[in-house]
């Protein structure tokens, strides 16, 4: 196992710069390592707002200016590339369609798969760049045969390998994550930015979905999909409430159900199932959220697909914990059994399989198997 | 390093630097009555006389401004307001659709906020307004035209406008014509008196002078309503303490640009021809923008459209090799937009994304042209592979 290629030879690197502190420090580190770095800010909105509202990090003109200012301080060329059309088609429309189908998408993962390490990477390679650099916290290691491995970041608390698990070997071969292999707290990254003279050192982190300016996902979906009143039912099928659109819910959701009558046992109720066809939301007790297994589609492997069943640890959502699983690829579908029941698994989210810190592959959760019985 | 973006800004002439630095440490408000003020005023007025002589105007016709943008705004908004004040029926503004944004956006603003009816004049495939088009537009209702504005030379594709003929048409109807001549000075003969224009914009940093200084040459019959109110320093149509060092330096640059104009047109024009030839040899399907006839375009401008390329990609690839040029079009939030100039000439929007403007200047050399000749072919090939995203 050798180290990542940035240590061995200078590369022509295109650094994706959101205007935030992580990607700025990543670009600075890449430049300092001797690479020939060019910064690029992705314009992802057709009608960008002038200024940030709240703690957002990628779609305003102010963010673009912050990125340019950082590039100027680092001393690298800087461009803005308009990927708004691709972003709308591949990320925003997909996000809406997934919710409409009763699933819970992860747009950041989708953006990495379709925009940063597809549209952007392809254009970068065509223009003669060797790699795309981002501020993600993850590690790429090179095997003796030259193929790549994706690992969790040294700092597990900030690890973002989950949203990169969808990348294949070719994409990883051209990815540079300068923040992934050092143990640095966010404060230390900010201190490093400060030391490097980067004005974004004090800029707040972004948490929300970048294309939903006010953070109101439900409102965004209601605007796009319209309101459609439907029934909230319990596990027996009895109507316990009304909703304004089944798409507005996520499996495992507890808040915002607005059910008037309390459950017979007085315990909180959770969203167990979303049926877009009948526009019905099923709720029930926490115990009914327990999932014993799942089926996942669109598997992608970092390297060759494993043959036969294997034992892995799995992550089921961003910032989620790890679960022991047994997984097997059957006719192109990943069939997963949990060692212990897992609570609140939402179709549409990705399952990422790990072997230790190494990402083995990922797939999109299509359906879950109740811990007790039956496919939901 | 091959700097081929002189239309954006050109290096200051050493003589202009000298004039600037000679004044920077000198105290004096040109409006003050004491000795320091008198000294400053003398510097300003001598500079004004120099500017007037260089541009074929009277000293009293030189209204100093903070640059081309302010002069354009003063001409367009100020003349609109004063003409409308004199006759409320005058609300129609005629403009070429290929104007610089300093004119275009001012005109659009009048349409959105001041009740103006904005009418864009038709242009041909070279982006040129023909006198008959202006005549047709004014003659439809001569009484309601507030002003017309047509640039002397286009900043993107270099096309020259028939300014004198246009001014004659406007004068027939008593309509004031403004021309943004920012790109024309020092490259083609610019003479305010014989142009027949009511107002004309010039800028310092495009001709080897400093940034932040320009002028509106303003016929004495015209009194535009001020955009900037205050001390009334410049003929009561422009207020603000004059930047004495910049004014002095601007005047030197204007004098030299005029004195060297014939040399510039001949020598830099020849270099431009070589550059255009080199580009066409390397990329046979490159399309020259603007008027191909040398007498119909700025001698220092070479504008090309490269089918299947994104201008931004070309810019990045050439920049990486030390060649500095421009796509020629403006950015919105840093994102290059298809040029309004090319769209006005009827160019397909997809095609309009693949443009480069090479603009030469007084420091350009054969080595600059050679650098482009060597780099442009591979750059276009690569940009085509990257495609239009």
Automatic annotation (TrEMBL), chain A:
Its main location: cytoplasm. This is tRNA-specific 2-thiouridylase MnmA. The record marks 136, 349 as: Interaction with tRNA. One of its GO terms (molecular function) is tRNA binding. GO terms for biological process: tRNA wobble position uridine thiolation. GO terms for cellular component: cytoplasm. The keyword RNA-binding applies. The active site is at residues 111, 210. SUPFAM superfamilies: Adenine nucleotide alpha hydrolases-like. It comes from Streptomyces tagetis. Its EC number is 2.8.1.13. InterPro entries: MnmA-like, MnmA-like_C, MnmA-like_central, MnmA-like_central_sf, Rossmann-like_a/b/a_fold. CDD domains: MnmA_TRMU-like. It is found in: Cytoplasm. ATP binds at residues 16-23, 42, 135. It catalyses: S-sulfanyl-L-cysteinyl-[protein] + uridine(34) in tRNA + AH2 + ATP = 2-thiouridine(34) in tRNA + L-cysteinyl-[protein] + A + AMP + diphosphate + H(+). Keywords: ATP-binding, Cytoplasm, Disulfide bond, Nucleotide-binding, RNA-binding, Transferase, tRNA processing, tRNA-binding. Residues 293-365 form the tRNA-specific 2-thiouridylase MnmA-like C-terminal domain. The keyword RNA-binding applies. It comes from the Bacteria. PANTHER family: MITOCHONDRIAL TRNA-SPECIFIC 2-THIOURIDYLASE 1, TRNA 5-METHYLAMINOMETHYL-2-THIOURIDYLATE -METHYLTRANSFERASE. HAMAP family: tRNA_thiouridyl_MnmA. Catalyzes the 2-thiolation of uridine at the wobble position (U34) of tRNA, leading to the formation of s(2)U34. Residues 158-160 are annotated as: Interaction with tRNA. Belongs to the MnmA/TRMU family.
Automatic annotation (TrEMBL), chain B:
The keyword Flavoprotein does not apply. Keywords: Iron, Iron-sulfur, Metal-binding, Pyridoxal phosphate, Transferase. It comes from the Bacteria. It catalyses: (sulfur carrier)-H + L-cysteine = (sulfur carrier)-SH + L-alanine. Its cofactor is pyridoxal 5'-phosphate. GO terms for molecular function: cysteine desulfurase activity; iron-sulfur cluster binding; metal ion binding. Pfam families: Aminotran_5 (PF00266). Residues 3-372 form the Aminotransferase class V domain. PANTHER family: CYSTEINE DESULFURASE, CYSTEINE DESULFURYLASE FAMILY MEMBER. Belongs to the class-V pyridoxal-phosphate-dependent aminotransferase family. NifS/IscS subfamily. This is Cysteine desulfurase. It comes from Streptomyces tagetis.
